[in-house]
């Protein structure tokens, strides 16, 4: 298990499920294998841990009242939350990630 903390850089080892940061209508998606992310801040009150994509790709569905919009994930601005492989004890807990899905970047 990988213990999460702020500014931790991680690489996905396979395609992993994630979610967006829409509190009212959260959407799901995935990051492709080999994507690099960084934890950007502390966990929310329900222990969602935010990250941004530094390199790599994927897709996310942004939900709206009449359906959803499929968007490509690209490096840069954008905030997402870990989903698949994330274990936590709420509230405000960073939790851990499954080491079969992610590895820590040592740079």
Structural description of this entry:
The model has no long low-confidence stretch (mean pLDDT 92). The strands form two sheets. A nine-stranded antiparallel β-sheet has the order 8-7-4-3-9-6-5-2-12, with no helix packed on it. The chain contains no helices and twelve strands. It has one domain. The chain is mainly beta and 107 residues long. 0% of the residues lie in helices and 46% in strands. The protein is globular.
Short note summarizing the structure:
With 107 residues, the protein is mainly beta. It has strands at residues 2-3, 9-12, 16-20, 28-31, 36-39, 50-55, 58-64, 67-73, 80-82, 86-87, 96-97, 102-104.
Contiguous low-pLDDT stretches (5 residues minimum) are none
Distance between the termini: 20 Å
Helix content: under 10%
- The average pLDDT score comes to 92
Radius of gyration: 13 Å
What order do the SSEs take from the amino end to the carboxyl end, as H and E?
A: EEEEEEEEEEEE
Largest β-sheet summary: 9 strands, antiparallel
How many strand units? 12
Write out the strand line-up for the largest beta sheet, numbering strands in chain order. 8-7-4-3-9-6-5-2-12
Number of helices: 0
Helix/sheet category: mainly beta
> Tell me, what's the shape?
globular
Beta-strand content bin: over 45%
Q: Number of domains in the coordinates? A: 1
């Amino acid at each position: 298990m990988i213990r999460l903390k702020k500014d931790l850089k991680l690489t996905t080892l396979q395609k992993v499920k994630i979610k967006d940061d829409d509190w009212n209508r959260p959407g799901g998606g995935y990051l492709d294998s080999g994507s690099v992310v960084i934890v950007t801040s502390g966990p929310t009150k329900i222990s969602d841990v935010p990250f941004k994509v530094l390199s790599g790709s994927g897709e996310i569905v942004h939900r709206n009242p009449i359906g959803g919009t499929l968007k490509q994930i690209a490096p840069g601005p954008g905030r997402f939350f870990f989903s698949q492989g994330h274990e936590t004890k709420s509230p405000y807990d960073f939790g851990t990630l499954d080491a079969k899905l992610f590895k820590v970047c040592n740079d």
